[in-house]
Amino acid sequence: MIYTVTFNPAIDYIVNIDDFKIGEVNRVKMDTKYPGGKGINVSRVLNNLEVKSTALGFIGNFTGEYIKNHIENEGIKTDFINVDEDTRINIKIKSEKETEINGLGPNIDEKTLEKLFEKADKFTDGDIVVLAGNVQKSVDFDVYAIIQERCSDKDIKFVIDTTGNALICTLINKPFLIKPNKQELSELFEVDIKNKEDIVFYGRKLIGMGAQNVIVSNGGEGAILICKQGSYNASPAKGIIKNSVGAGDSMVAGFIANFTKTNDILEAFKWGAAAGGATAFSLDLCTKNEVTALIDEIIITKIN
């Protein structure tokens, strides 16, 4: 079974405004809303790629119910924990420049957190568990590492997509895959990463620290995989960027969807790159047809 865990889901409220001006009344040209949160995005793309998963995490009140109902109507199984405070709303303003306003989300107390730990204790050998996104300030930053440690006696593949110390502390538990982007990799090591060679160098450091596989998304230049077999570059797909939200999550989902079928790291990397590109070229998360249309464009080359 594949599980995705999203501590702080959101409704992503996306508004298109011509010539957005701060301090003035702005008229919305077009708006839409989607269930959001990195783990939820992964579950939604997996579902689009005809791979089943169960979405876990914390939801609250009418905004939380919107997320639960929306993704269940898409055919995704959920096992959320209810909290007293509202699930947050994130506002994405699309104008000449893209602006994001992200909500705080509900507090998670120890009793509520323990409910998630109890669910994690039921994970079994062969499961893939995606721990994605930042957690609320009310939760210890190393909570992902705690979940890994509670499952240390089982053969579970953990996929970690978070940043900073929250990511670093998971490495001792040898996660199957981590996926920082270029900027996040720079911040991890407090350096200015300028090129592919730098990405490979610091990606190798993450391998040395415990990660089994590292994918670094590199914007318009594609993505780089660092693994035991070597380092590989995925060329970027060609298209018009319409949406930056969820592209990284789609890359994770595309990778997992293919790996569960092929057990081939490089082929999974190719599907991940195609899924990330397909979402970037769409208004919502990618569909299977959009991903397969890009597969032949993605060229995987080994980096010497």
Task: Give a written overview of the molecule.
By secondary structure, this protein is an alpha/beta fold. 36% of the residues lie in helices and 23% in strands. The chain has 10 helices and 15 strands. It has helices at 38-48, 61-73, 110-120, 143-150, 164-168, 182-189, 196-208, 247-262, 265-280, 288-294; strands spanning 2-6, 10-16, 30-36, 54-60, 77-78, 81-83, 88-94, 98-101, 128-132, 157-161, 177-178, 214-217, 223-227, 230-234, 300-302. The strands form 3 sheets. Strands 1, 4, 5, 6, 9, 10 and 11 form a 7-stranded parallel beta sheet that branches. A 4-stranded mixed beta sheet has the order 3-2-7-8. It has a 4-stranded antiparallel beta sheet with strand order 12-13-14-15, sandwiched between helices. Strand 13 and strand 14 form a beta hairpin. The protein is globular and about 55 Å long. The mean pLDDT is 96.
Keywords:
alpha/beta; 7-stranded parallel beta sheet; about 300 residues; 4-stranded mixed beta sheet
